[in-house]
Amino acid sequence: MTVLVTGASGFVGSAITRALIERGADVAVLVRDSSNQENLESLNVRIRTGDLRDKASLERACKGCDTLFHVAADYRLWTRDSRELYASNVAGTRNLMESALETGIARIVYTSSVATLGGSPDGTPGDETSAVTINDMVGHYKRSKFLAEKVIDDLVETHNLPAVIVNPSTPVGPRDVKPTPTGRLVRDAAAGKMPAYIDTGLNIAHVDDVATGHILALERGAIGRRYILGGENLTLREILNIIASICGRSAPKIRLPRRLVYPVAYVSQAWAWLSNGQEPQATVDGLRMAKKKMFFDSSRAIEELGYQSRPATDALADAIAWFAAHEPRKSRR
């Protein structure tokens, strides 16, 4: 099996790359010139430079591969120019899938997100059948991922694209170099920088379990079918309590009304706009998303793929340990 992995320098992509190497796959990775390649250090992979917005580079990257994991995405809840999200996540996905069809790739796993799925009206965990439309998508990131899934659906139907879709929940664990918004939450909570919380919830899954789920989807997934790769449903308060217990700290006891946090988010975004353009610590779209608990059910993946997930405590502990070891290294650079 000769595999191309996009987003391999990132959090989930690097976990998938490692899992493939462990299984003896011949792995090529697509990276941009500007990518931080720390997660690829010491890995036996072939580097192919390209960009989702440059179709010619994608055709070159796909040549000679029979399998594709499309993991790369622009994952930002705020950006100065929202068009960048659509250029990478929607148009870029179409560019890559067309390149895969043109070069004869036989099997594809596309990494979507539970952000594209709806919740159940009665508040129970959502699944792959939960009804949802573009109007339910909060913010440009969710909209772009929703539209990218539609690209996959359309190409499966019209061009027999051999793709399986996986919808990871909230991956947590080692090698979150950027870090992701959830990774920042874990890092900051472990450092005692989160004295309060809001009423929301997440489905926490270990990133290495999510990576294994991708490979199971490759091996056992049905073309055009979706599979949620999740873990444990926890309120934010429960997550912070677990982190506090792991770190030997007192858990935050102050619950903030969401309306009191919105001014902080607006100020944070304004400062990001005026300064360096980096994603702010708090975003308005993030708060809007937090109105609903992001609880999901992975039963389909468990029953059809044989997917398994470890306790959220293990994922959080591994993330905390990695951040503790990584931050000193980062500060010395």
Descriptive overview:
With 333 residues, the protein is of the alpha/beta class. It has a domain at 2-180 and 204-232 and 295-310: NAD(P)-binding Rossmann-like Domain (Rossmann fold, 3-Layer(aba) Sandwich). Helix content is 45%, strand content 15%. α1 (11-22) crosses α6, α5 crosses α11 (312-332) and α7 crosses α11. The two termini are 37 Å apart.
> Roughly how many Å apart are the termini?
37 Å
Overall spatial form? globular
Average residue pLDDT: 90
The strands making up the biggest β-sheet line up spatially as 3-2-1-4-5-6-10
Unreliable parts? none
- Oligomerization: single chain
**Radius of gyration from CA coordinates:** 19 Å
- N-to-C series of helices and strands: EHEEHEHEHEEHEEHEEHEHHHH
Q: Describe the biggest sheet?
A: 7 strands, parallel
CATH fold call of the domain at 2-180 and 204-232 and 295-310: Rossmann fold
Percent helix, as a range, is 40-55%
- Given helix and strand content, the structural type is alpha/beta
CATH superfamily of the domain at 2-180 and 204-232 and 295-310: NAD(P)-binding Rossmann-like Domain
Please identify, by name, the CATH architecture of the domain at 2-180 and 204-232 and 295-310: 3-Layer(aba) Sandwich
Number of strand segments? 12
